[in-house]
Amino acid sequence: MSAPDFSAAEFTLQQAAYWLGAEMARPSYIWRPKVYRDGHQWCALLGDNITEGVAGFGNSPEMACAAFDKAWNEHAA
What is the pLDDT of residues 45-65, one digit of tens each? Predict the structure, then answer.
């Protein structure tokens, strides 16, 4: 009897680990901005207000966090 081939499962686990690492490196994951509904959109805000802090807006919490990540990276550059 031959040993089972786990290469596909190993590859899947490697992909999952890579994805998880990338998600955990996002500014919205690291800094945990406040995410709340603002009118018809969602806002992800780190700071006391939009003018002094870093903010991102979107049609969903995920889109607001993606916009926050972009704003954070532009602010840091």
Answer: 999 999 999 999 999 999 999
